[in-house]
What we know:
It is a single chain. This protein folds into two domains: about 5-115, ATPase, nucleotide binding domain (Nucleotidyltransferase, domain 5), CATH 3.30.420; about 150-350, ATPase, nucleotide binding domain (Nucleotidyltransferase, domain 5, 2-Layer Sandwich), CATH 3.30.420.40. By secondary structure, it is of the alpha/beta class. The strands form two sheets. Strands 3-2-1-4-6-5 form a six-stranded mixed beta sheet, with helices on both faces. Strands 9-8-7-10-12-11 form a six-stranded mixed beta sheet, with helices on both faces. The protein is built from 15 helices and twelve strands. The protein is globular and about 55 Å long. The chain has helices spanning about 40-45, 75-85, 90-105, 125-130, 135-140, 150-160, 215-225, 230-240, 240-245, 250-260, 265-285, 295-300, 305-315, 325-330, 350-365, and strands at about 5-10, 10-20, 25-30, 55-60, 70, 110-115, 170-175, 180-185, 190-195, 290-295, 335, 345.
Amino acid sequence: MPVLTVNAGSSTVKLGLVGDGDELLATAELRLRDARIDPGELEREISGPFASADSVAHRVVHGGERFRGAVVIDDEVVRALRELTDLAPLHQPKSLDALDAVTAMFPGLPAVACFDTAFHATLPPAAFTYPVPAQWRQRWGLRRYGFHGLSHSWIARRAPELLEATAAQLRIVSCHLGAGASLCAIRGGESIDTTMGFTPLEGLMMATRSGSVDPGMLLWLLAHDAISQQEMAAALEHESGLKGLAGDAAMEAVLARADGGEAQAAVAVGVYVHRLRAAIAGMAAAMGGLDVLVFTGGIGEHAPEVRSRAADGVRFLGVEIDERRNREQAPDCEISGAEAAVRTLVLRAREDLEMARQARAALTR
């Protein structure tokens, strides 16, 4: 039962063909043109090995409160997904456009929606509730949803497998560090806290997103007519984070400049690591302790200096890494120090495998 996985991002759509044994049979990456898929390019890619797919798994960023797990797509589901666009106006349209384009090519192929929010459906009220007026929460559904759930869900399965343990035995802090970044507290295989909230803007500083900032500061700017709401939204999403502090959204480049003595870049890395350490400790506190620390995503997998500095700041939790392993080993691997009380792993982000697993489960229920 090969599964075609469709992962629509901000500027590309990644395609994968996942076989029964989780083997990756084919991959492709399509560039979006004016935020849309080029039908001709899609047809050229899918007419090859992808045509052997028996089903399709689509990554959908937002499932709201309704979709708490993967669901087989029909007309009613598509209508519901379009109604959720207002909750994720930057991301949901791209997922729906990819869904429309692939469905047009394979109208008879069963398709499943896999949600980035669904893994966080297990958040307890203490973790998902915002302390704002009740009428706001009731009228507009204001709550913390969390994102990157497909990546965190994969970590919840992969880490116990690699450590030859059961999920029930482990308290895991999963650090998905890429252009977007979030942490998740995973206890007993379930998400019990995460850093992103109502939108993917909350939480860690990211490549171009600010992460959490003082809302009073934003209100001050609006009250003083210093900036419009549209300008503020664009700046917080696209001109902040590493780019806002160092002028470059690529962590590798910012680290190189910081190592070369550039003060601006050093501050950017310092802010990033400072916030990452605090978030790791906060996720551990939500679980009452920590057994496994996992780094994944583009930065998590490829920036050993970030891993080293983050781990050094949470030694009081029992984290200690072996610097040789940290710099030389490739994921999936363990980089724990010999005397460490907490196991530290670097795992490859495999949202495609998680999507394929969820699609097969949804289609066989």
